[in-house]
Design a protein that fits this description.
The structure is a single chain. This protein has 16 helices and 13 strands. By secondary structure, the protein is α/β, with parallel strands linked by helices. The protein folds into two domains: 3-238, TIM Barrel (Alpha-Beta Barrel), CATH 3.20.20; 244-368, 4'-phosphopantetheinyl transferase domain (Ribosomal Protein L22, Chain A, Alpha-Beta Complex), CATH 3.90.470.20. The radius of gyration is 23 Å and the shape is elongated. The model has no long low-confidence stretch (mean pLDDT 95). The protein binds pyridoxine-5'-phosphate. Pyridoxine-5'-phosphate binds next to strand 8 and helix 10.
């Protein structure tokens, strides 16, 4: 069962439209927990457009409401968080002119500041999360920053689903980011723009353990009531999910591989004729080999066997499709052997390759088809 966090910002939006006290965000918070939500999220924005300081004060004073405070990475917000000590803090980017949080944090630009804030919050045992785009580099940076969780921005996939457009590419990004994050011991959450349909799609990713949903829940509650809406989400989040056979991650030092690829014996032992032929089309050949080496190692780890008598480097060929997407092409006898070992009729492999300045990173998921 995955956790449901209910964001009640827009109860405050309705209240503020009249400038009086009704409806009461703290009551919505209490009720959401009563109806089965696992936590309550509020975003104290710099312009205080919905949630106000008095809401934070009131809600954080109520026992039994696990509270998740969303905030920008500023010293002023840090001071407020340390004053009210919510259970969780999610750091989000903020721009005054945006309607809602339109994208994930820019970790590259703001790493030092965010790291400082995360460390302070960690010291007070406040669970920290970073709201990021589903991107490999952002996951690695998040790990480096020292956060306990990441929340993947699901705004893009939500829009694609709502417009009935192809969302597979974005789904794969979210899935691969989740797998990498989990393998690095980060807890994975998802949020933004979610409704019943998008939640149903994303709950199939086993690594995502928490969904934070606001606008849709509050909007839908007008017609169906908060209790019924929460009930419906909890039912979706209870569903059993697909089975993953194995996950493998590998990071290769490009300089080390550069040295190794000078050795012809190494090349012919590890790479197929086809891979060697295609390498000639690439400007940076050692980088080409480095990424493929990482992919082969990641695949072998995902099988659970590693490179062994039954699984040689050359049994695992890494090719690119017409769009440049890397794929794993297994030797027939290897695929047959693995099917028998996995006890499945067929299986599917997913590969993601990326390179940082000095490293090649590959991760592979093997799924039962
Ligand atoms: N998660 C985060 C980090 C957010 O910033 C928001 C929006 O405030 C949400 C989840 C909820 O998004 P929505 O209101 O679109 O469900």
């Amino acid at each position: 069962m995955k956790n449901l966090g209910v964001n009640i910002d827009h109860v405050a939006t309705i209240r503020n439209a009249r400038g009086e006290d009704h409806p009461y965000p703290y009551l919505a918070a209490k009720n959401a927990i009563k109806y089965g939500a696992n936590s309550i999220t509020i975003h104290l924005r710099e312009d205080r457009r919905h949630i106000k300081d008095k809401d934070l004060k009131k809600i954080s004073s109520i026992k039994n409401i696990p509270l998740n405070l969303e905030m920008a990475a500023t010293n002023q917000m840090l001071k407020i968080a340390l004053k009210y000590k919510p259970n969780f803090v999610c750091i989000v980017p903020e721009r005054r002119e945006e309607i809602t949080t339109e994208g994930g944090l820019n970790l590259k630009k703001n790493k030092k500041k965010i790291k400082y804030i995360v460390q302070k919050l960690n010291n007070f045992n406040i669970r920290t999360s970073l709201f990021i785009n589903p991107d490999i580099k952002d996951i690695i940076n998040s790990k480096d920053i020292g956060t306990r969780c990441v929340e993947l921005h699901t705004g893009k996939i939500s829009l694609l689903v709502k417009k009935n457009k192809n969302y597979q590419g974005e789904f794969t990004k979210i899935k691969n980011s989740s797998i990498l994050a989990k393998s690095l011991n980060l807890e994975v959450h998802a949020g933004h723009g979610l409704d019943y349909r998008t939640t149903k799609i994303l709950q199939k990713i086993p690594e995502i353990t928490e969904f934070n949903i606001g606008h849709f829940i509050i909007g839908e509650s007008i017609e169906f009531g908060l209790k019924n809406v929460i009930k419906k989400f909890l039912k979706i989040l209870k569903k059993k999910i697909m089975s993953v056979i194995g996950i493998g991650v590998d990071i290769v030092d490009n300089q080390r591989l550069k040295k190794l690829t000078k050795n012809k014996k190494f090349i012919s032992r590890v790479f197929t004729q086809n891979e060697q032929r295609i390498s000639k089309k690439f400007k940076n050949i050692s980088n080409y080999y480095s990424k493929r080496f990482a992919a082969k190692e990641a695949f072998s780890k995902a099988t659970g066997f590693g490179i062994s008598d039954n699984l040689h480097f050359k049994d695992i060929e890494i090719i690119n499709n017409k769009k440049g997407k890397p794929l794993i092409n297994l030797k027939k006898s290897t695929a047959f052997f693995l099917k028998k070992k996995f006890k499945v009729k067929s299986f599917k492999t997913n590969l993601s390759l990326s390179d940082e300045k000095n490293y090649s990173i590959a991760y592979v998921i093997i799924e039962k088809k």
